[in-house]
Design brief:
The chain is mostly helical and 136 residues long. 78% of the residues lie in helices and 0% in strands. The N and C termini lie far apart (58 Å).
């Protein structure tokens, strides 16, 4: 159907001006690339990751279709508006998480040099400790 729309519109560039048509082209190309990479054993993990990204994009496309529903449309719009507030909350959470992780790592490991293991300890443990896991 997308190919028919592109041919009927007269110009491919005019058809690509719509953002959802660009999303459709992106998902189609992503699916082709992930399908091709699935055929090789060395790129199997990459293929799974590309399939996951493809599924996420397709779910966003389904949300766009729900927006036309008289029942689900207002709820989708409410969720879209709440994403701005969620972004602010996540940024505040990350700042508090990193501050807590840095302070606790500095107090618990004062003589340890900084490396990737220290970075892991600064992020992994404090994340779970903020939600009540004490690692006893």
């Amino acid at each position: 159907d997308e190919i028919r729309q592109a041919l009927v519109s007269g110009s491919i560039f005019g058809w690509l001006n719509d953002k959802w048509n660009r999303v459709d082209v992106f998902t189609f190309l992503l699916f082709i690339v992930s399908f091709i990479t699935k055929r090789f054993y060395r790129t199997l993990t990459l293929s799974k990751g590309l399939f996951v990204v493809n599924v996420i994009v397709l779910h966003f496309r389904i949300f766009q279709m729900y927006a036309k529903s008289p029942i689900l449309g207002p709820k989708v719009l409410m969720l879209y508006e709440m994403l701005g507030d969620l972004r602010i909350f996540v940024m505040i959470f990350i700042i508090i998480w990193m501050a807590f992780g840095t302070a606790s790592a500095a107090l618990l490991m004062p003589y340890e040099t900084f490396n990737m293991d220290t970075l892991h300890k600064m992020t992994f443990r404090p994340y779970f400790q903020m939600f009540g896991e004490l690692f006893l």
